[in-house]
Structures are given as C-alpha cells and as structure tokens.
Amino acid sequence: MYRGTGRQHSPFNGAIWDVYHYEKDLDLVSAPGHIDSDLPDTTPGLAVEKNVTPVSIKQGTDARITITLVNQGTTPVHDIEVVDETLPEFPVSGGDTRYAIPSGLQPGETRSISYMITGQKPGRYVLNGARVLYAGEDGNYHRISSGTASIVVLEPLIPQDSGNSGSSILKRLSDFMKFIFP
How many other CB atoms are found less than 10 A from the CB of residue 40? Predict the structure, then answer.
C-alpha cells in the first residue's frame, strides 16, 4: 500500500525518521475517526452576540451594551460565565460586566444580559468582544467570544456647564446683589 523511503537525512537531526508516500487516497468510510452521519449531533452550540445601542452618543451620555446568548446546539449547556471588559473611555454606569448563569441554557433557549456605559471622550471606538466559558452536557468546557461592537462619541456643540458660562456668572452676580441689597 505504501512505499517507504526509509530513514532520511534532514537538517532536523533525526527528528523526521520515516517518510511514507501513500499511493491511494483514504476514503471517508475507512478513515480512522470517521463518524457515521446517522448518529445524533450532540455538539454544544452556544452562540454569543454583542450589540450597543445607540451606536452614536453625545459625550457624557450613556449607551446600553447587550450580550445575547443562544444555545443553537442539540444538548443543554451549563455553568456559563460571561466577561465583557470595557475600554477606559467607557466607565460602567449601570449593571455589571461579569455574569454567571450556572443553570445554563436548554437547546433553543436565549438569554440576554445588559449594562450601561458612559462615553467620556469623543471619537470612534471598537469595543472588545465578550468572552464566554461554558460546559457541554458531556462536562467538557468550551470558550467562545462575540464579535466586536462599534460606537461613536460626539463632542457637544455647546460645552457642558462648567460654572463659568455667562448665564452662570449673571446668576451668581444676581444672588450676590440680593445678599448685599435685600
């Protein structure tokens, strides 16, 4: 079936001992490890997606991050851990970026989790993908990640009141005058 070329001299100092050339391709029926297609698929199929809404915000305002998990497989998954790390320009203003779902998800079941971030610095940003660790029915653990999400933070046209605007100065002057001349 095969033609052995015997020991080969190589620059790998003996790391490759034998090289064989197969004269016939292996077909799937006789290939080792072939799985019969009539057997049920028991592959866990957890999918994860990350979305941000709205996709453009004004500096200092909030956006909602939603992470959706869907069990697209044919068996339950359990012991799910979700971690979504935020960029320094987006502090978390509500919710949590780490979730545990020990009870898991049944086939076809969906679970969404969300939290709020505040855009502090104008610019276009690509947010990191969420990472997920989960166990299949067989006890084997799997890691998956969502895609990234994009957001634009726009600078306001009218600067936020820092206490030095014209109306603020007039109000303070008016309050002072009321104090001096009641």
Answer: 7
Does residue 108 have a pLDDT over 80? Answer: yes
- Are the CB atoms for 46 and 77 separated by under 8 Å? yes
Domains within the chain, CATH numbers bracketed: 46-154 (2.60.40.10)
Q: What pLDDT was estimated at residue 37?
A: 45
For tokens 């999918």, name the residue.
Answer: 47
Considering the entire predicted model, what is its pTM? 0.66
Rounded Cα–Cα distance for residues 129 and 174 (Å) = 52
Residue 8, class by beta-carbon neighbours within 10 Å (0-12 exposed, 13-18 middle, 19+ buried)?
exposed
How many Å apart are CA 176 and CA 173, to the nearest integer? 5
